[in-house]
Design goal:
single chain; manganese ion binding; alpha+beta; two-stranded antiparallel sheet; 12 strands; 15 helices; 6-stranded antiparallel beta sheet
């Protein structure tokens, strides 16, 4: 990104902090950068990734971008509290190393450029959770604590997330130059992006159209994956949409508890724009805004034609994902009818979305009877289960094989908000980060049970407590 120059970014060093300390470290993140797990023991590790010490060869920068937030264009965005520290290619593809919460930049709009420890724990763990669930996402190397207090509604502990991403170029990166009437810079950014992220198109005459087609495909696939695991992003502004189709910028996200397509975890989302059931439509809308920035390079009719492919890609991907979740391979009309009835059944029940599928894997020969506890209308459940059994019997797969296959795609553990709050509370009140590490380990293996020597393991797998069902957060939480 640095080679594009100051029209695209601000070169700036992180602001130093007082006595930084390690909250948590990800060996898996380190391996992406070609680092060994013992790198965290180097006394320079915390100093470099807190921004106190220069990383040799790096040239930190804050990127310019704008975006549509809740449907309205905001021209004054950009990296206001983070810096792209460096790019590293250790043979697994190139990774941006980004410090989120390392001080103000020219894009900070008067804010302090810091991030709360509370929100940083959430982002740090969320990327690892979605990665293990098979969802494209940013990753993390470490979470660094800062002893200096910052002020939101009250004094707060601060932190820096060392975020890893295949790219930090957003839909809003292109909008910044489009809405300031700089088509030459839009083209330059696009050429750079294609060369870096879509190099297979770089020498082709229709590379811009192929780029847009690929972004559509990746975005549709990502959102279908979100829907399949019940993930709700909460802030699907165009500045939070990565051009590589990776889940990006975790704020007030959540996983649906009881199935409610109207649920949004963002307390600012008063109209439910970013609710679970709206995510596919918003993905399409955001892609339309990206397409508008390319009209000087691609005929608008061709852009519109490409956008029409979004829904078929999304629909087919979602169908295949729910086929695997239900342990069924024949994705015909009978299957579609079963899925439609299932969502209708779930919306009228008290069923936990995640645990419903985990219990369903036990049907009909295992311990599935707890499903009954979710449904007041037992006749409706029995009717649906009879339809399901007909499709199971039609395929003739052995119960044990189907059970195993379903348990490999339906998680036992998801990163529920009450578990995050438990970890955050220990961190803030006791400086105890052990629960952050527990959640990190559970995130890595969401389809398995907890280690046998842990106490209180049921809390990680039980339904969400009533007081946290459909819990909502602000963007600063």
């Amino acid at each position: 990104m640095a080679e594009l120059g100051t029209d695209f970014c601000q070169f700036k060093s992180p602001d130093p902090v007082t006595d930084p300390y390690l909250v948590n470290f990800s060996p898996e993140g380190a391996s992406l950068l070609g680092l060994t797990p013992d790198c965290v023991n180097d006394p320079d590790f915390v100093q470099i990734f807190s921004g106190n010490q220069e990383l040799p060869g790096s040239r930190p920068l804050a990127m310019a971008y704008s975006g549509h937030q809740f449907g309205s264009y905001n021209p004054r965005l950009g990296d206001g509290r983070g810096l792209l520290l460096t790019e590293i290619d250790a043979g697994h593809g190139s990774w941006d190393v980004y410090l989120k919460g390392c001080g103000p930049t020219r894009f900070s709009r008067g804010f302090d450029g810091r991030a709360t420890l509370r929100s940083s724990i959430r982002e740090y763990l969320a990327g690892e959770a979605l990665h293990a669930l098979g969802v494209p996402t940013t990753r993390a190397l470490a979470l660094i604590g800062i002893r200096d207090l910052i002020y939101r509604q009250r004094p707060e502990l601060a932190a820096i997330v060392v975020r890893l991403s295949d790219s930090h170029i957003r839909f809003g990166s292109f909008e910044f130059f489009h809405y300031t009437n700089q088509p030459d810079k839009t083209t330059r950014l696009l050429d750079y992006t294609i060369e870096k992220q879509f190099s297979e198109f770089a020498s082709l005459p229709d590379k811009y159209l192929l780029f847009f087609r690929e972004v559509i495909k990746r975005t549709a696939t990502m959102i279908a994956l979100w829907q399949s695991v019940g993930f709700v992003h909460g802030v699907m502004n165009t500045d939070n949409m990565s051009i590589t189709g990776a889940t990006f910028d975790y704020g007030p996200f959540g996983f649906i508890d009881r199935f409610n397509p109207h649920f949004s975890p963002n307390s600012s989302d008063h109209n439910g724009r970013y609710a679970y059931g709206q995510q596919p439509e918003i993905g399409h809308w955001n892609l339309g805004k990206l397409g508008e920035t390319l009209t000087h390079l691609i005929d608008p009719d061709d852009l519109e034609s490409e956008l029409k492919n979004y829904q078929p890609v999304y629909n087919q991907t979602l169908k295949e994902l729910f086929g695997r979740k239900l342990g069924l391979q024949a994705l015909d009309e009978s299957f579609s009818d079963l899925v439609g009835r299932m969502f209708n059944l779930l919306s009228k029940s008290q069923a936990d979305f995640t645990n419903f599928f985990r219990l369903l894997a036990e049907y009909p020969e295992g311990s599935w009877q707890d499903l009954n506890n979710y449904f007041d209308d037992k006749a409706a459940l029995d009717e649906w289960l009879n339809l399901y059994k007909k499709l199971i019997d039609r395929e003739g797969e052995d119960f044990a094989d189907r059970n195993q296959a379903m348990n490999q795609v339906n998680p036992r553990f998801i990163l529920r908000n009450h578990l995050l709050e438990r970890a955050i509370s220990k961190a803030l009140q006791q400086s105890d980060f052990s629960e952050v590490e527990r959640l990190r380990l559970l995130c890595l293996n969401p389809f398995d049970n907890a280690p046998g020597d842990w106490d209180e393991t049921d809390i990680y797998f039980d339904d969400t407590p009533q007081s946290f069902v459909e819990w909502r957060l602000s963007c600063s939480a």
